């Protein structure tokens, strides 16, 4: 079974290097999360395939900051650093909340989820499709970070205060070459 | 997001179109719950015209799927494609959701 990816906590992780990144900040207005996301994603080059998916993944991270970090308090800001090219997407999002305290519990939950996934135990997997806490509401899917760990190929890392997340994806490049086939 | 219901035999098909996101996914849950109150017991959720889904949309599908499984009723999700399919794959839910390639295939499976 492949090793399960984990959310890391590492203030000094290279993904927190903001050099050369664009910056925007937004009020924590739940109604505008997708609009804020579009303001960020518009910097991404159109050559990136599946731009819808990139937008969705960025929207989830901004939503977490607005809703779970800042509790939709418009006086609290969400700070976003971002850079895109045809080969990568790199994002850092910081809120003014108390931080994601449950990272260890979440990693443990995800490890079990992946064990049931790999052993094709669908009955048990059914109990691990959504990570919920006492603060989760009916609108929370509880699955965003599962997809995030898979999508952001270079990692998902929180700072020590756990109120900033850094993620990066490297896009696979089309191989240009000629394959010789024996006649 | 727009939801339309049509009936084929005893099966109710919900055609979803638009984007299933954090602002509207609850509507699909509410619709299915109302249909369950009216004793509908065979569902197809047709995702042919859905090009965007987020974790709230996936959450709505999980809720619907687990509710219908618990009640031992029939559900198939059809025409999942593009980034919607990719999000379901990233979330490792391809095996969890009961799926069919097309509405016709779903109707055959449910009927069979």
Could you tell me the mean pLDDT of chain A? 93
Percentage of residues in strands of chain A: 15-25%
Structural class by sheet pairing and helices of chain A:
alpha+beta
Q: Count up the helices of chain A.
A: 5
Task: Please trace the helix and strand order of chain A, writing H or E for each element.
Answer: EEHHEEHHHEE
What does this structure look like?
The complex is a heterodimer of chains A (183) and B (112). Chain A is α+β, with helices and mostly antiparallel strands and 183 residues long. In chain A, 31% of the residues lie in helices and 19% in strands. In chain A, strands 1-5-6-4-3-2 form a 6-stranded mixed sheet, covered by helices on one side. In chain A, strand 3 (77-84) and strand 4 (88-94) form a beta hairpin. The longest helix of chain A has 19 residues, at 51-69. The mean pLDDT of chain A is 93. Chain B has helices spanning 25-37, 55-70, 82-90, 103-111, and strands at 2-8, 11-20, 42-53, 74-78, 99-100. The longest helix of chain B is centred in the middle third of the chain and has 16 residues, at 55-70. Chain B has 4 helices and 5 strands; from the N terminus they run E-E-H-E-H-E-H-E-H. Chain B has one domain (2-31, 39-111): STAS domain (Transcription Regulator spoIIAA), CATH 3.30.750. The model of chain B has no long low-confidence stretch (mean pLDDT 96). In chain B, strand 3, helix 2 (55-70) and strand 4 (74-78) form a beta-alpha-beta unit. Classes of the chains: A alpha+beta (183), B alpha/beta (112). Chains A and B meet through helix 2, helix 3 and helix 5 of A and helix 1, strand 3, helix 2 and helix 3 of B.
Fold blueprint:
The complex is a heterodimer of chains A (183) and B (112).
Chain A: E1 8-9, E2 22-27, H1 33-41, H2 51-69, E3 77-84, E4 88-94, H3 103-118, H4 122-125, H5 144-151, E5 155-158, E6 164-170
Chain B: E1 2-8, E2 11-20, H1 25-37, E3 42-53, H2 55-70, E4 74-78, H3 82-90, E5 99-100, H4 103-111
């Amino acid at each position: 079974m492949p090793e399960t990816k984990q959310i890391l906590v590492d203030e000094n992780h290279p993904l927190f290097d903001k050099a050369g990144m664009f910056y925007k900040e937004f009020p924590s207005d739940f109604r505008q999360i997708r609009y804020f996301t579009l303001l960020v994603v518009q910097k991404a080059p159109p050559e990136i395939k599946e731009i819808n998916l990139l937008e969705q993944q960025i929207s989830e991270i901004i939503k977490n900051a607005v809703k779970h970090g800042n509790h939709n308090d418009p006086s609290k800001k969400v700070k976003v650093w971002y850079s895109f090219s045809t080969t990568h997407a790199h994002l850092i999002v910081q809120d003014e909340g108390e931080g994601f305290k449950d990272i260890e519990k979440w990693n443990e939950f995800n490890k079990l989820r992946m064990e049931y996934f790999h052993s094709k135990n669908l009955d048990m997997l059914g109990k691990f499709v959504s990570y919920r806490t006492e603060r989760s509401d009916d609108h929370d899917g509880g699955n965003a970070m599962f997809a995030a760990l898979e999508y952001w190929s270079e990692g998902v890392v929180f700072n020590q205060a756990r109120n900033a997340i850094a993620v990066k994806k490297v896009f696979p490049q089309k191989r240009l070459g000629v394959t010789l086939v024996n006649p | 997001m727009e939801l339309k219901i049509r009936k084929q035999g005893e099966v109710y098909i919900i055609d979803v179109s638009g984007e299933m996101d954090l602002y509207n996914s609850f509507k699909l849950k509410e619709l299915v719950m109302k249909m369950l109150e009216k004793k509908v017991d065979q569902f197809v959720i047709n995702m042919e015209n859905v090009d965007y889904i987020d974790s709230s949309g996936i959450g709505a599908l999980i809720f619907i799927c687990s509710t219908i499984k618990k009640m031992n009723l029939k559900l198939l999700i059809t025409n999942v494609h593009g980034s919607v399919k990719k999000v379901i794959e990233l979330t490792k839910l391809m095996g969890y959701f009961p799926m069919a390639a097309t509405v016709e295939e779903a109707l055959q499976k449910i009927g069979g």
